[in-house]
C-alpha cells in the first residue's frame, strides 16, 4: 500500500509541474467574462509550492474521464462570481453509475418516510452511501484541491483492495475547486470579496448556491471540507486540525447522533495520517517548524480544547451540511506544500475507510435525524425548544422580504405551506395564503436555526470563532410567529409550489414607492437612473410623477412591491443620481472588509466606484457625491506587514495626501460615511472629527436593540428597532453633534450573540452626525446578510445629498 500511495502522489506531482498537452504553458490566462492572470502564490502563506493551477484542472479531469469509466465530470450550471466554471466529479464503480437516480430516490424516502428508509437499509446493507469532499473553499488554501485531484486519480484508476472496497461502499462527490476566483487570484475570498465559508446562512454567492445544490441533491452521509493552514494549535507533535468542535454546539442539531460517530471518525483520520508519517518529505520543516515525520497526532478541538473552535453558527460549510444529517468536518492541513497535500489525502482516506467499516449504522443514524424531525420527537431537547410551526405573514404592500425567505427555505430542502383558508392564532386572524413552516419535517433543525430568535450565549463560553447571531426574520425584515410546541394550528394547508413575485402599480399617479425593502429602494434608484424626476418625503417614501407609470409597471414585475397613487407632499425633496465611491480593501488580513457594503449598495441600485487608499491619495475623490469608509483602520496606514502592504498606503506623503483629499471633499459639501469601528477610528485619526470612539472586543457580535430619533436618516424604521454589531462601536463627545440613534437604554438591549462587558455601551450614541460626516457604530451591511438594515445606508446617502 505504501508504494502504491507514493506512486499516486508522484504521478500527480508530475502533472502539477507538467501540464497535459491540451493546456498551454504557464503562466495561464483564464478567460470567461474577464481575462485573469493566475498568480503563483499568496504572501499570506508561509510556504510556497507549484500547486495545480485552475487553468490546468479541466484538462486533467477530462483526461482521467477518458481513461476511466468510474468517473463523471460535470460543470455546474452556475458560474463563479467572476464567471469561472465549477467542476463536480462523481466517482463510483461503473455498475453503480447508472443507478444514481435509484440512490436519489432512496434519499427522498429518507426525507418523506425515514422509517421505511431505515428498514430498507437493514435489508440492503450493501447500499452505497454518498460522501462529499469540498476542495479549497478558501482560494489560498491550495492543498485542498490538489488532494482532491490525487484522490480522483486514485479512485479513477487504481485497483488495489482498499480502493475497490471504498468504491463498493461509496459514491464519492468531489467539488473540485469550491472557489475558482480565489485559486486564480490567490485570495481567500471569491471575486465579490466574500469569504464563502461564512456564507452558508446567507447563500449570497453563486459558489455557495452551487455547494448547497450538491448537499441538498445528495444528502451526503459524510462531508469533508479541505482547508489549511493550522500548525501549532495542538503543539509541535500534533500539526493540523480535524473537527469535531468545541462547545458551544448549536442547539438545533441532533448532536447526540453526530457525536456518536464524529470523534471516532476524526481519530481514524488522525491514525491514517500518523501511520504514513515516514512517507512525508519534511520539505519546509526548517521554516514551518512542522515535523511530519515525528508527529504523534493532530489537533482535534473537541478532544484537545474547551472553547474557541465552535460549530455554533451555520455559516460554515460542514456545520451547514450537518443540518442535512451529514457527519461534517473541517480539515486544516498544516503547511502549504506537497506535505500538506499528503496530510489532507491521508486524512480523507482515513475518513473513507472508517465510513466503509461503519456505513450501515452511520447512515441509519443520519436517517434518525430526519425521523426525529418528521415525528416531532427530539429526545435531547427541552420540550419548548422546537415550536410546532412558524407562521410567516404576508405583507400586503411589500412582500419581497417574505418571498425571499420562503424561496430560501425551499432552496434548503425545507417545506413551506400556505393556508387554504383564513385562520386565527392567539387572537390574530391570518388570511388565506399565509405561509406556514411546520416543524414536523425532516430538516426541522435547519428550519429552526433559520427562523428562531437566537440567544445570548455570552456567559456560555469565553470566546467565539465567528458570529453568534444571524436571525433571518430580524435581519432580513420579515415576521416569523412561533406556534408553541403545545399548540396545533387548526388550518388546512398546501405545500407552496410557486411564488407570485409580481408587484402592482395602482392608479394613474403620482406614485408613492415605499421605503420598506432593498427592492423598493432599487426601484427608486432605477427611476432616477432612467432620468425620471423623483422626490423623497420626510418619512422616507419616494414619489414619482405620473409619467413614470410604464417604467414602474415593468420594474415591479419581479419585485412584489405594491406602488400606490398618492399626492407628492410639498416638503418632499427632489433627488438626483448619487455618485458613490467606497474605499476598497484589497485584502488586508486575507479579507475584503468593504465587500458587504459594496454588494449592498449595488443591490440598492447605486452605481458604485471602488477606490484604493492609494488612488484616493493620488487622484482625490473627483466628482463623488458620497464617500464611504467601511473597513479596517490600517487601510490608511503605511506601516502594514509585507502581506498587507499593497492594500494600504505606501508612505507618509500618501497618508498626508489622503487626509488632505478627504478633508477637501468634506469641506466642499461631500457626504462622508464612516461605518463600523475601524472606519470610525480611522476617521478620528485623520482629524475629520473630535468624536470619541469606543469599541467592544473584536470578537463581540450580535443583534442589539436601538432607539432611533425622528430623522430622515432613520426613516422607514421604528423608534425602537434593531441593529447588528460586529466589534460594536459607540461614541462620546457628541454634545455639539446630532445624535441620530443610540443603543437602547436598558440592560436587555443585547438580544442575541456574544458580547462581554456590553453594559458600557448601554444607552450610548451609535449613529452620530458631525456636519457632513456620519458615524455608524453598527454593521448594517454585514457580509451582504443584513438586508433589513441596508436602508440605513440608502437613507444616509439620500438625506445627506446636496
UniProtKB/TrEMBL annotation:
The active site is at 332 (proton donor/acceptor). It comes from the Bacteria. SMART domains: Zn_pept (SM00631). The keyword Signal applies. Gene3D superfamilies: Zn peptidases. InterPro entries: Peptidase_M14. Keywords: Carboxypeptidase, Hydrolase, Metalloprotease, Protease, Signal, Zinc. One of its GO terms (molecular function) is carboxypeptidase activity. Its cofactor is Zn(2+). Belongs to the peptidase M14 family. This is M14 family zinc carboxypeptidase. It comes from Rossellomorea oryzaecorticis.
